[in-house]
TrEMBL record:
Annotated PROSITE patterns: GST_CTER (PS50405), GST_NTER (PS50404)
Source taxon at top rank: Bacteria
Taxonomic path: Bacteria, Pseudomonadati, Pseudomonadota, Alphaproteobacteria, Sphingomonadales
Record's protein name: Glutathione S-transferase N-terminal domain-containing protein
Family that this chain belongs to: Belongs to the GST superfamily.
Length: 232
């Protein structure tokens, strides 16, 4: 059994997609990030960066239960645990890993800043909005080129696809038109219709219906007003 500490955000969806694809037994432990539950002492023992998702695997390959935070690390762990969606041979394995790192270091952070300045910042700063919309656009172009002639990012379906897809779902809010990226658009619809992806997003809807996506000012202060004292 795996406990998944989760909230339905792009990073949270990555892990439910894997768990549904692999058919692993798991239970969701909601972490309402808008209410500050990520700062609870028990959660910080699992995820010291006060971010979800995090997992506790009570049935690892060997030894005591293991706790892991950071969505990319979780995907790699689950891939190794199950022997699925992460190749063993070094060439395809590191092809997958480098695209996973591309998402973790590029697509996710840049799209995240896009979301923040376009939707949540108390002051609309044209330079910041333009900066992150353009960088998101550049990254969509990188992904579109990589997907040209392929069904999935590295050819075979992998954790790289699971990592990238949830960050493309809000493309309209990011100021992007998938019609400008034909290979990416085809991949996006291929991903969206995978039964496991549909189940993963349905789990998220159970936790937080889409009708509750708008944040209050108090929730914004919790999410965007963190500093070192709060993290401690």
């Amino acid at each position: 059994m795996i406990d998944l500490h989760y909230w339905p955000t792009p990073n949270g969806h990555k892990i439910t997609i894997f768990l549904e694809e692999a058919g692993l037994d798991y239970r969701i432990k909601p972490v309402n990030i808008g209410e500050g539950e990520q700062f609870a002492p028990d959660f910080l023992k699992i995820a010291p960066n006060n971010r979800m998702p995090a997992i506790v695997d009570y049935s690892p390959t060997g030894g005591d239960p293991i706790a892991i935070f950071e969505s990319g690390a979780i995907l790699m762990y689950l891939g190794e645990k199950t022997g699925r969606f992460l190749p063993v041979d070094p060439h395809p394995r590191y092809d997958v890993i480098q695209w996973l790192m591309w998402q973790m270091g590029g697509l996710g952070p840049m799209a995240g800043q896009n979301h923040h300045f376009s939707r949540y910042a108390p002051e609309k700063l044209p330079y910041a909005i333009d900066r992150y919309v353009r960088e998101t656009n550049r990254l969509y172009g990188v992904l579109d080129r990589q997907l040209t002639g392929k069904e999935y990012i590295t050819g075979e379906y992998s954790i790289a696809d699971m990592a990238a897809y949830p960050w493309i779902v809000p493309h309209e809010a990011q100021g992007q038109d998938l019609a400008d990226f034909p290979a990416l658009k085809s991949w996006f619809h291929r991903m969206a219709t995978r039964p496991a992806v549909e189940r993963a997003y349905a789990r998220g809807e159970e936790i937080r219906p889409a009708s509750q996506n708008e944040m209050t000012e108090a929730q914004k202060k919790i999410l965007f007003g963190q500093g070192a004292p709060r993290a401690r």
